[in-house]
Amino acid sequence: MNSKVETKHLNDVIANHGQDLSGKVAAITGTTTGTGYVCARELAKKGATVLLLNRKSSRSESAVKQLQDEVPNGKFENIECDLQRFSSVRNAIKEITNKYEVLDILVNNAGVMALKDMATEDGYDVQIQTNVLSHFLLTKDLFPLLKKSALGRIVNHSSMARLGGPLQAQYFGANGGNLGGDGTDEESIGFQGPRWERYHQTKLANAVFTYALKNKLEDASVDHVIALLAHPGLAATNLQVTTAIDGGMEKDSILMQRAQSAEDGATGIIRASLDPTSKSGNFYGPSAGWSGYPDELEPEELLLDQKNIDILWNGCEAAVGTFEF
User: Fold this and answer.
1) What is the pLDDT of residues 92-125, one digit of tens each?
2) Of the candidates 124, 265, 251, which has an alpha carbon nearest to the alpha carbon of residue 198?
3) What is the reported pTM?
4) Cα dist from 8 to 15, 40, 262, whole Å
5) Average pLDDT of the residues in 53-60
6) How many CB atoms lie within 10 A of CB 39?
7) 37, 171, 199, 293: which is the annotated catalytic residue?
8) 10-17 and 267-274 helices cross at what angle (nearest 10)?
9) Which member of 203, 214, 284, 293 is catalytic?
10) Core-most of 11, 250, 298, 306, by most CB within 10 Å?
């Protein structure tokens, strides 16, 4: 997290939209740094038991210790979950279902950005598997626990990169390493080219997933589980650092000088996790785009388009199995 950027909105969001989470269980992906870390910290402060779903690393171990230091009475559990390996995700699901009877909040937060054109061990593009397919798998297989909650919440994290063209089925298949290459340095600097198109597809898919879920929950008459969407604007997190190392962007770009803090970037998913007035389909994020208070937003038409919903749902189910409601 970038401590040089002033946090402006976090305290107001907690004050305006918070509620007691004592006795509740929340699972969050990607909590070692950035928005996921802040979300985990704030939900623990509200009394939730927070399951931290991360790839096993020294970073994940140190993050747990730091969270415990910041929230001495907080309840945290580190669960190994590598979103780039379906086997690891399924092991995490087994661990959760063996230990917990109810899950109240699932925050699909983790993501990678503009990485090279490469396949995971499962054969899928590293971005689509990390950002979309594995979160679909988590949601699908943890859904029985969410249904046992008085009000289960599924929170998906998108970004401004959702804006652009429609979803394309090829990105959801086992086509990793065959999806346009890495592009030129000039394209990467300008947030253009194939690696950024792959990223766009994932962030649009996160948003479309929310409205596909909303529709299917309504069709199944499941009114006590809600699907929510958030975007962080432009936040100073480790996501940009990782992408810069991979050659995807300039970490000290003029654009990043406009970034808000990781704390403010997390306020969308925090509001979605906490707001007692939330309804299925609510979308929270800065209305100005790059920064600001997480207002309730209107979804773009592309997020509601049935063709996009079909591409998303069919592609995810083909990869990880049927979603039973």
Assistant:
1) 999 999 999 999 999 999 999 999 999 999 999 9
2) 124
3) 0.93
4) 13, 19, 11
5) 96
6) 31
7) 199
8) 10
9) 203
10) 250
Residue with tokens 């409601």: 325
Q: Which two tokens stand for residue 81?
A: 């979950």
Q: Which two tokens stand for residue 238?
A: 């480790």
CB atoms within 10 A of CB 115: 19
Q: Which two tokens stand for residue 202?
A: 């994932």
Q: Would residue 203 show up in a list of annotated catalytic residues for this protein?
A: yes
Token pair recorded at residue 319 = 């990869």
